[in-house]
UniProtKB/TrEMBL annotation:
Catalytic activity: dTDP-alpha-D-glucose = dTDP-4-dehydro-6-deoxy-alpha-D-glucose + H2O
Alphabetical list of Pfam families matching this protein: GDP_Man_Dehyd
CDD domains on file: dTDP_GD_SDR_e
Record keywords, A-Z: Lyase, NAD
Protein name: dTDP-glucose 4,6-dehydratase
Length: 335
């Protein structure tokens, strides 16, 4: 079994590959893994083992058709994580999101068709559905993305679906809620707030902080992806939810407590443009059909995540320094 994993120098893809190489997915203990990653600002080679007998790392762009076609050759399955993933950056500048998330997905799938890859999982997001005030989205819900990031993911989902329908690619799509865990870039809420507090700095809370997100530990997301890879049906989409709905004020309070800080460390800043109020997934399909259930209790997962950032400053200190260097073009503004 040979598996090609795109974007696995980033947060979620690297978690998937580390778990796979550690023998964490039954039946895949001998699988050989090729990682294709551009090493954008969000990708780090040191998120993966420096060397491993079953790991090959290729630095490259998923938009580069000759390269991707060559790399895809001989693989049984492709797990497609590579993307521009941060909403605020897409508000700032959308072009790279369309290029990588839409064009890159199309290019990767062309390579899969050309090389006869047998199975593809396209990793997507709940943000494609837009924002929901009450209730929760099933997979049948219309797509109504609000940010350029979400729009680029929705477009890539439709491209992926079309390669199943048109070219007969055995392909499934996952749509997951907000992930948290170690190795997440400190541009995202949880690692940003934790690393700011660890450095004694305030945390920037957007708007009134009443936006709701549904949090899932990255280990649970990756287990769900593996379930979809092995048991999912071609042409089907699977929501992957966590069930831990929290307002941003609530999660901020929990992070403050875990970091031994209080509300005086919160700095209210202007709201994100087009800020989605609430995400909530109905994930009964993957639970009922594939036997998925999240295993990491939220309180434990969050405490472990804070502990990981506290114990691993070498991983994030240079990233936050880079952010300080670019402070003139900060992605958030003060009120
Ligand atoms: P990330 O930003 O941490 O990692 C993205 C990786 O993709 C990086 O290693 C980067 O170098 C690589 N990459 C970017 N552009 C590339 C290109 N053109 N060619 C090759 N590699 C490229 O993202 P993440 O949080 O790990 O998200 C992974 C996937 O999961 C994305 O598709 C995202 O939309 C989806 N997702 C994320 C979340 C979340 O909460 N983080 C939730 C649901 C779905
Ligand atoms: O829902 C899945 C999505 O979750 C993924 O598809 C995205 O890749 C991932 O980045 C994430 O998107 P969000 O926009 O929900 O995550 P983010 O961590 O950027 O923000 C979470 C919430 O916190 C959101 O309501 C905005 C708010 N926020 C964020 C930052 C970075 C703040 O209040 N202050 C901040 O500084």
């Amino acid at each position: 079994m040979r598996v090609l994993v795109t974007g696995a120098a980033g947060f979620i893809g690297s978690n998937y590959v580390r778990t796979l190489l550690q023998g964490g997915y039954p039946g895949y203990e001998d699988a050989r893994v090729t990682v294709l990653d551009k090493l954008s600002y969000a990708g780090r080679r040191d998120n993966l083992p420096a060397s491993h007998p079953r790991l090959e790392f290729v630095q490259g762009d998923i938009c580069d058709l000759p390269l991707v076609t060559e790399v895809a050759d001989g693989h049984d399955a492709v797990l497609h994580f590579a993307a521009e993933s941060h909403v605020d950056r897409s508000v700032d500048s959308a072009a790279e999101f369309i290029r990588t998330n839409v064009g890159g997905t199309q290019t990767l799938l062309d390579a899969c068709v050309e090389r006869g890859v047998e199975r593809v999982v396209h990793v997507s997001t709940d943000e494609v559905y837009g924002s929901i005030a009450q209730g929760s989205w099933t997979e049948e819900w219309p797509l109504a993305p609000n940010s350029p990031y979400a729009a680029s993911k929705a477009a890539s989902d439709l491209v992926a679906r079309s390669y199943w329908r048109t070219h007969g690619v055995d392909l499934s799509i996952t749509r997951c809620s907000n992930n948290y865990g170690p190795h997440q870039h400190p541009e995202k809420l949880i690692p940003l707030f934790v690393t700011n507090l660890l450095r004694g700095e305030q945390v920037p809370l957007y708007g009134d902080g009443r936006n709701v997100r549904e949090w899932l530990h990255v280990d649970d997301h990756c287990r769900a992806i593996q379930l979809v890879l092995t048991k999912g049906q071609a042409g089907e989409t699977y929501n992957v939810g966590g069930g831990n709905e929290l307002t941003n004020v609530d999660i901020t309070r929990r992070i403050l407590e875990l970091c031994g800080a209080d509300w005086s460390m919160v700095h209210r800043v202007a709201d994100r443009k087009g800020h989605d109020l609430r995400y909530a997934l109905d994930d009964s399909k993957i639970r009922d059909q594939l036997g998925y259930e999240p295993l990491v209790p939220f309180e434990q997962g969050l405490a472990d995540t804070v502990a990981w950032y506290r114990d691993t400053p070498s991983w994030w200190q240079h990233v936050t320094q880079e952010r300080a260097v670019h402070a003139g073009t900060a992605l958030y503004q003060e009120n």
